[in-house]
Structures are given as C-alpha cells and as structure tokens.
Amino acid sequence: MEAVRRISLSLFQHRHVTDIVEHALKTALEVANAEAGSVLLADPDRQSLVFTYSIGTIPVPAGTTIPWDHGIAGSVFQSAEPAYIADVQSDPRHLPTIDQATGFHTRERLALPLKRWEGDPIGILEVLNKREGHLDDEDIEVLTIISALTALSIEEARLYEEAKLAEVARLLGDIGHDIKNMLMPVLMGSQLLREEFQELCEALPTNDRARAQKSRALCEELTQMLRTNALRIQERVREISDCVKGLSTPPRFENCQVQKVIEDVFCTLNVLAQENRITLSHEGLTRLPVIRADERRLFNAFYNLVNNAIPETPPGGSITVRGTMEPDGQHVKLSVNDTGRGMPPEIRDSLLTSHARSRKAGGTGLGTKIVKDVVDAHGGTIAVESQEGVRTTFIISLPIAGPVEAHSTPSSSSV
C-alpha cells in the first residue's frame, strides 16, 4: 500500500511522459529490490517497442528498438498478459543481443504490460534480477498495480499534450490566415514597384539608360526575392500547422537538383547571414546526380537547419553544406556543418526524437521535427554530431530514386 501511495503521488505530479516513466521505473525497482529494469513504449508507426528509460549497471540506450512481436517483451505486449521467467537464459524467446550490448546478465525477468485495467497495452515494464531471492507473487501483485497506474498516467499526459497541440494548431491556423492577408499587399506592391521601375528606366535618356540597367537588375532581383519568400512564408506557416496537427500534404516526388535547393536557401538567408558576418557555402553539390524528391519540402528542411545554425554561429564563422555519394551508389549524403557553439549531450540526444527540446528562449523544437519528417518522407536517414564550443553537423542520407513506396505512386495524384 505504501508503494501504491508513493507511485500515485509521484506519477500524477508529472505532465511529461519521460518523467512519469523514470519515476515509475525507479519505484518499481525499489519495491522489488531488483538490479535493473526498463520501460519500453510502443511505436505503432514502426510496429516496435522503444526503450524509453532504463536502469542498470549499463542502461539500454534510450531509443533502442525491438520489433513488438519479438522476444519476451514482444510476447507480453502481444498477449497483454504479464510473464515471469525464473531462468531467462533457457527461455527460447529471450533476445541475448540486449545483454550482449550492455554487458548485463539477466537471470530472471518480470515483464508487465503497461495498460489500464481494460484496453490494449501501450508498452512494457520490465524488472530484472531480484537482489535477494526471487521475485514472488507479492512482487508481481504490487508491480501490476504500479504498471496500471503508470499506463494511466502516461495516457493522461498524452491527452494533455494533445490538448495543448490542438490549441496551438488552432492558433497557427488563425495566424496563418492573418499572415496570408498581410502578405497580399506585399506581393501586389512588389509587382507594382517592378512595373513602375521598368517604366522609369524606359523613360530615361539613352546616356543614363546603361547606368539604370544595373539598378533595374538589382530591383528585379530584390522584388523577385520578396515575392518568392512571401509565398514561402505562407507555405512554412502551413507546414508548421500541419506538423503540429500530425498532418501533411502528400509529398510530390519529381526530379530535383540538390544544388538548386541549397542555393535557394542561401539566397533567402544571405542577408541575415551577412548581418551576422557568417559565410554560407556549399561543396560537392555540382557532382551530385538528380534525385527524386519533393523540392519544396527539401527547401524547408535545409532552411530550418541553416536558419537554426546562424544564431548559434559566432561572427566570422561559417555554415557549409557538403554533398557526396554514399558507398552504395544509391544514396546521396548531405551534411550541414557549422562552426558554432555546439550543444550539450542531453539536447543533442533528444533532438531527433519526439522529446526534442529547444534551448532557445521560447523555442519549441518544432524546426527539427519538420526536418526529420521531411527526411522520413523521402525514405532517408538523419543523424547529428555535436561538440560543445566547436561545431554541429547534421548528416542526411537520401535515396537517389526516392522512397520505395513512391515508385508506384504517380506524382500527378499528389496534392
């Protein structure tokens, strides 16, 4: 009863799933006097169980996945019934790879489905190796209650997050509508300015016309940049709104030159980079083949990466996009490297997960989520390397032929 009281007080004080999982596992191991344990949450998109929090001599790294129908954990997840195995090594369902990776020797295991009294499991709570003796019926009863309360707390936290995201999505919809209305005069004004300047140039005397041509060319470039980026602002607000709601317009895969995408990003951000005395450059992109990609989404992804890197890079620094071929000849490798201040491990390790956090004041971490969503939509992979005070590098690998599922889908059917 004391364990139930403590877990109830602890769990319902927290709003974040990671905090709930951490406190639940610590309480479970203390109650059972066990050496190690893990909480794995289900990822329906990948049909896998994801190690969310682990305790042990060498904990299982967060984010490690196993198929949700493999191993003892998978068996318990599928059956929604707890399982106690006194001799794990003799159980044919045991996956030795986790023990091999951590150096931990699992003797006994209690795996409990994380679910309410009724309903499907949302994950697994595992307790390993009681320090003295073996896990008994009393341990199982108490841990079953803890697992049920944990599942209830996780669901409540998720509902709370969904409610917050729904409100954010509604606000973004309103903001997007306002931005669209405010940008319309900009678009119309830039076109009128373009036409007015053209008339002025044609009315100038012949001897002044050559000098005016340079000014005209500059005006053409600036007005076109205004129009292009006004439209992109509208698109980006819609992308962010869709991202929050978990929705997106189906990708439109067409032949795409990566160099052009990066040059468009640099053109858009060049003024900001110059104000911060940062050099934007690219290397190796001219040697890359044409790839099948959604150009608009790629622009958004690299815009986010470069735009995020600018304030993190001190004056005199640089941001470089490099392109090479992967050894398999089927993928292009793109890296965005800055000479900025880097990031601490806890920020870096969560950056490409659903628990991404921003260290900027008021930051949401949404920019990185958009980048990962774009890479995932292209069937690619993304990783981040960072060293505090030195640099940060994002490494993206994209298939030249586009994602496999896109090969059978005509681009004309995309919206």
SSE arrangement:
Layout: H1 2-11, H2 17-32, E1 34-43, E2 48-55, E3 65-67, H3 71-79, E4 83-85, H4 96-102, E5 109-114, E6 123-130, H5 137-203, H6 206-245, E7 254-256, H7 258-275, E8 279-283, E9 291-293, H8 295-312, E10 318-325, E11 331-338, H9 345-350, H10 366-377, E12 381-387, E13 391-399
Parallel strand pairs: 8-10
Antiparallel strand pairs: 1-2, 1-6, 2-3, 4-5, 5-6, 7-9, 10-11, 11-13, 12-13
Helix pairs in contact: 1-2, 1-5, 2-5, 5-6, 6-10, 7-8, 8-10
Task: Write a concise synopsis of the structure shown.
The chain is α+β, with helices and mostly antiparallel strands and 415 residues long.
Could you explain the architecture of this structure?
By secondary structure, this protein is of the alpha+beta class. It has 3 domains: 2-161, 2-Layer Sandwich (Beta-Lactamase), CATH 3.30.450.40; 163-245; 254-413, Histidine kinase-like ATPase, C-terminal domain (Heat Shock Protein 90, 2-Layer Sandwich). The protein is 49% helix and 20% strand. The chain has 10 helices and 13 strands. The chain has helices spanning 2-11, 17-32, 71-79, 96-102, 137-203, 206-245, 258-275, 295-312, 345-350, 366-377, and strands spanning 34-43, 48-55, 65-67, 83-85, 109-114, 123-130, 254-256, 279-283, 291-293, 318-325, 331-338, 381-387, 391-399. It has a 6-stranded antiparallel β-sheet with strand order 3-2-1-6-5-4, with helices on both faces. A hairpin with a 3-residue loop joins strand 12 and strand 13 (391-399). Helix 5 (137-203) packs antiparallel against helix 6 and helix 6 packs across helix 10 (366-377). The radius of gyration is 27 Å and the shape is elongated. The chain starts with a helix and ends in a 16-residue tail after the last strand. Mean pLDDT is 80; it is low at 361-365 and 408-415.
